[in-house]
Design a protein that fits this description.
single chain, 117 residues, little secondary structure, globular, Acidic leucine-rich nuclear phosphoprotein 32 family member, repeat, AN32, leucine-rich repeat
């Protein structure tokens, strides 16, 4: 659901088996608590290019216990001081943020070109 004018995920249907969600280049600024309720098994979430400005907006992702990879590239929140450290602290289940792990190692390419889940 890339670049389709989404401003909210509130109308997202319940997708308990969904593991990967791409909602980049929309106008989403918050309301991410919906994801934990409707997509509890997400392992990969791409929110790049959205209107996420505050770390508090992504706090709801703490409830996504299987989330391994989060992409917030081109969101205002990435300009925050200690952005990477803060997100990894807030979301300890994360392995990759914006394509890199905590030690700044890039996501290894898997055979299909997608990050490992």
């Amino acid at each position: 659901m890339v670049n389709i004018g989404l401003s909210s995920l509130s109308k997202l249907p319940s997708l308990p088996k969904l593991r990967k969600l791409e909602v980049s280049d929309n106008s989403i600024s918050g309301g991410l608590d919906t994801l934990a309720l409707k997509c509890p098994n997400l392992t990969y979430l791409n929110l790049s290019g959205n209107q996420i400005k505050e770390l508090s907006s992504i706090e709801a992702l703490q409830n996504l216990k299987n989330l391994k990879s989060l992409d917030l590239y081109s969101c205002d929140v990435t300009a925050a001081d200690d952005y990477r450290e803060s997100v990894f602290e807030l979301l300890p289940q994360l392995v990759y943020l914006d394509g890199f792990d905590q030690e700044d190692n890039e996501v290894p390419d898997s055979e299909n070109g997608e990050p490992p889940c």
